[in-house]
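JOB MANIFEST
job_type = single_chain_structure
chain_count = 1
residues = 281
[input]
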Amino acid sequence: MIWICTVLLFWVIAWAINVRMVAMKPSRIITFFVPALFGVTLLLLWEGIVRGLQISPVLLPPPSAIAVTFSQSVPILWGDFVQTFVKGALSGYVIGCGAAVLTAIAVDRSPFLQRGLLPVGNFVAALPIIGLAPIMVMWFGFGWQSKAAVVVAMVFFPVLVNTVQGLQASDAMQRDLMRTYAANYPQALLRLRLPAAMPFIFNGLKIATTLALIGAIVAEFFGSPIKGMGFRISTEVGRLSLDMVWAEITVAAFAGSAFYGGVALIEKTVTFWHPSQRRVR
């Protein structure tokens, strides 16, 4: 009970500090410190509850045990990260998103594809990954190629739908102005349609970052080499090594957050002119 009382006291103090800091004038330090303090508080609360209630590590290991396992398994975690994220998720993300943008341009030019492909895309996007992953493994083998194929199928249609919607974001007056300048379709696409579509495209790209990592991990449950996040999670669960499972989850969480943040940073650079990127003072 001493652990729980200590952590609850720290929770109350940290909560009061966060409330005071949120009320202060926004700055980069406050923006970083508030979620960091909140996250540390959650970890300490987790540690206190596990130790205070003496919960079995098989059910819920404390963060300290996870940190020890993480530090002792860095080479294994790095190999799993490269196999799942770099080879599977990232390659599938690049292929799927690139193909989706090119297909969206073709759909924008063809009313037939707008009426035929998009409804099919909505249907395919609704297919469960649990049913899609084993089929891709049978088609493309147990290597990273099958995981990339699953990622391509997951990210393609969200990016496609957002890009098609973005290409239609420019209003009729703007398109008429381009025609007044005697601009052909490629010129109008590069100078008007694509810039106007960028906020929509990046919205799809940010959604696809989480889908890519989830798809690659789940696909490894149905067959993979002797490394990878999904392989390691399924194997260690069978061995009741929950601390290693949580270490893999930690790697996946950091990788997914960094991936999303990288795409958001690129979006901020590319769409600096958009109202959503203007800081309110």
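[summary]
Residues 150 and 195 are 30 Å apart (CA to CA).
Residues 2-55 form one domain.
exit_status = 0
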